[in-house]
Amino acid sequence: MKNNLRRYLVFMLTFAFVVSVFTPVISAEDNEEGETNIVNPLPISEIPHESNYGSYPYLLDDGVRNAEEGGELSVKEVNGQLTLVDQNDNPIQLRGMSTHGLQWFGEIINENAFITLANDWDSNMIRLAMYVGEEGYATNPDVKDLVYEGIELAFENDMYVIVDWHVHAPGDPREPVYSGAYDFFEELADHYRDHPKKHYIIWELANEPSPNNSGGNGITNNEEGWQAVKEYAEPIVEMLREKGDNIILVGNPNWSQRPDLAADNPIKADNIMYSVHFYTGTHNGTNESYPEGTPSDARSNVMANVRYALDNGAAVFATEWGVSEANGDNGPYLNEADIWLNFLNENNISWANWSLTNKNETSGAFIPFILNESDATNLDPGEDQEWSLEELSVSGEYIRARIKGIEYEPIDRTPKEEFTEVIWDFNDDTTQGFGLNGDSPINVTLENENNALKISGLDPSHDIGGEGETYWDNARISSDNWNGELDILGATELTMDVIVHEPTTVAIAAIPQSEKYGWANPSHNSLVEIEDFTQQDDGLYKAVLSIDTAASPNLANLATDSEGSLLNNIILVVGTEDADVIYLDNITVSGDREAVPVPIEHDPQGEATFPSDFEDGTRQGWEWQGESGVRTALTIEEANGSNALSWEYAYPEVKPSDNWASAPRLDFWSDDLYRVDNEFVSFDFYIDPIEGRATEGEIEINLVFQPESAGYWAQSSDVFVIDLGKIAEQPLTDDGLYHYEVEIDITNINVSDDTFLRNMILIFADNESNFAGRAYVDNVKFDQSLEKRVEELERIISDLEEELAMIESANLEKITEFEDRIKALEIQLGEQADQSNYGELQQTVVELQNKLNTLKYEIRELEEYGDEKSKSDFEDNGHSTGEIKAPIKDDEKNVLTLKDKLNENKAGITSKGDVSSEKIDGQVLPITMTRMYNLIFLGTLLVITGALFLVYRGRKEGMK
């Protein structure tokens, strides 16, 4: 028994040891973007989100201290962890907002906005995102002026301010575009060196080092990539340390998701913190860190990377995060945001939310412009220095509450529309169900007179007080016999016309009823008084009496409860000051209710097809991109004789700060989208403007690919501009459309030929234009440059010329051989024929010689026909004007004379030449025609030879 027990214990201990060794502390799974996310034994994303005080105790607090209270910041160890501390070495958390790119949304740098952020949002920090590439500081140095202005406004409003050198595209901070970093930071550090609030400034040296190679090189997501960032940052850190002790933030590989790499190999300087960026729809939370010894390539969860950095002696600052997915769209993912903020607040990690923009993306804090849906929020809140909650996006509303440390109580964002419904109009000569209510203390008479409800016998009904329940002794009428019902959900007011013979005070209290809500005492009478009446053409006087939900609680009940909102009766308690008869008419309910959007019916999307010609009647995969400022119906319409993708839209008269905000953005996704050796994207663009709505400004057509390897953003620097001021000079198609042959250079996009581009976006941006009308896109394709096409045509022509020369040479040899044989036969016949038969034989020879000449003539005709046909086709296809319209794939059909034509026209050919993909039929002598020619020649040769042989043989036998 003891031995069995011993064996059992040994077995269990061994089993426990094996499990402890081989069970990983953290497991992983791949998400949709190929990243590896931590999977916890109990993922915190699955913890019930019952209340902010329960699962997430660190979301609510007394807010954060401003810069005046916090004073000079430093990084110190508190409870075994490096963290941000104030002038008294107490932990301090900064919470606030980041601007979007100042080159695009610089309007946010205004006094009212900063006051609002400091006072209404309780922000103690703002981040100034100064892009360097992408039309930023490197090409527009004046954007630095906004940084100076933003710093001064932050000082005035007691906010710390992050100066963000926004490394984004390309992702390597050592690229030439970022070469001004050292001088930029030195200039600002010197400028504020002696300023009394210089310690409010925080330097951020590199926003998001990443593999993004748009416009240059990226860096790798490993130790080598972090070493590249250190190599860039260390000289700037050394310089800034000589000028002060301000906090310095340093980004890290993979879009600043790898503070763990920095913890393994930190920058040796004081007051250094490492950035972390995350988006709650993409980057999952975790309860775990990585155990010591975990290799860097196995560390992929962003929150776990932060935990690892904290555990290994690095201080972390969340300088950018959003409630969307990493691309800025979809969501918002607020429960996941609570998980992250609970973690950041618990660990005293400061944070800046992305972003203060009215751009049409989920992570923007303000309402964007969307055609026929919403107007963009002004980035200057105005003199009241407050953005209303309705002006904030869901993200902005949520973040404001989280900065303040208060409960998040979202407003009702249901789209509403105003409505007015006349319930009783009495136009049918009846009382429409109204009669004396059974509980009325006064007996009155009701009848229809002149299409109004006449109430007689009101002399004793004279309780006309405007406050309190002063109506109990008045007459009551009700619509008990009305057989109708009306949904009054959203109603805010009940009105009716009151008509009297002489102006007087009339008091009415109302109890609307439904199956669910039978009775609720009115709060008070609603009145019309003498001065409210206006005399009518018939001599009577009319006033409009209004009853709101405050006066009628039952009106409020029906108006706010969708399960009890069907009005089927109403009780009116009526009193007058000195009128025995009054008339009621047009009893009406009004308010606002959920808008029922008109459904947008797109034509079928179809399968993603590229090139896209839309001839199958579908959109071939094209759709509106998530940030598109236009989302009208995408349909297939005829343009210039073929199908095209079409939509109607108008640019707004009041322009958003970002001219892409109101732009239609077409999106195309394909599993087979590669540039290969092409140099352009080209397509036909047609517009059919409303009269007078295409006379000013420009339409700027931009092109973007979103390959993962380039950080999901690779934009061509080439922009196709349509000058609407010159639209009258643009040729019209037969169906009256203005036609533009768009060609956008894609060689300036820093992606390799075999890069999977993933999707392509066409953006039709508004540059102060007044366009309104219909647009069409057709024949979207990759294309090559005109020079490359000319080279290819010349090569093909040269090959054809060589082949033809070989054919002509071979045929010439055959003809010469044939002529020699005929001569030999003539000699033989002459020697053997007698005089009497020679004339006949010679006549036969002459006929054969004529046939030979005819054959040679026909050969020449075929050759000349080929030339003339080629020239004709060449000119018919527009080549006489210097245009080339045949794509390379059809060049084997090009004419023999094309090379001469190209040489004549080369002087007029430019890189923006007109190139389309129409086919040219039957040019040059085709391969099939060459074969036919050879067969005709050989066949004829055999016939003639055979005929001569028969004549010769017959003649010889005759001589015998």
Automatic annotation (TrEMBL):
The enzyme's first-digit EC class, named in words, is hydrolase
Q: Tell me which Pfam families the record gives.
A: CBM_17_28, Cellulase
Q: Which PROSITE patterns match?
A: GLYCOSYL_HYDROL_F5
Which keywords does UniProt give here? Carbohydrate metabolism, Cellulose degradation, Coiled coil, Glycosidase, Hydrolase, Membrane, Polysaccharide degradation, Transmembrane, Transmembrane helix
Query: What residues does the Carbohydrate binding module family 17/28 domain cover?
Result: 422-589, 610-782
- The residues covered by the Glycoside hydrolase family domain are 85-360
Q: Which domain of life is it from?
A: Bacteria
Q: Quote the catalytic activity from the record.
A: Endohydrolysis of (1->4)-beta-D-glucosidic linkages in cellulose, lichenin and cereal beta-D-glucans
Residue ranges crossing the lipid bilayer per the database entry? 932-952
Q: Which residues form a coiled coil?
A: 783-865
Q: What EC designation does it have?
A: 3.2.1.4
Q: Which family does it belong to?
A: Belongs to the glycosyl hydrolase 5 (cellulase A) family.
Query: This chain belongs to which protein, by name?
Result: cellulase
- The record lists the organism as Amphibacillus indicireducens
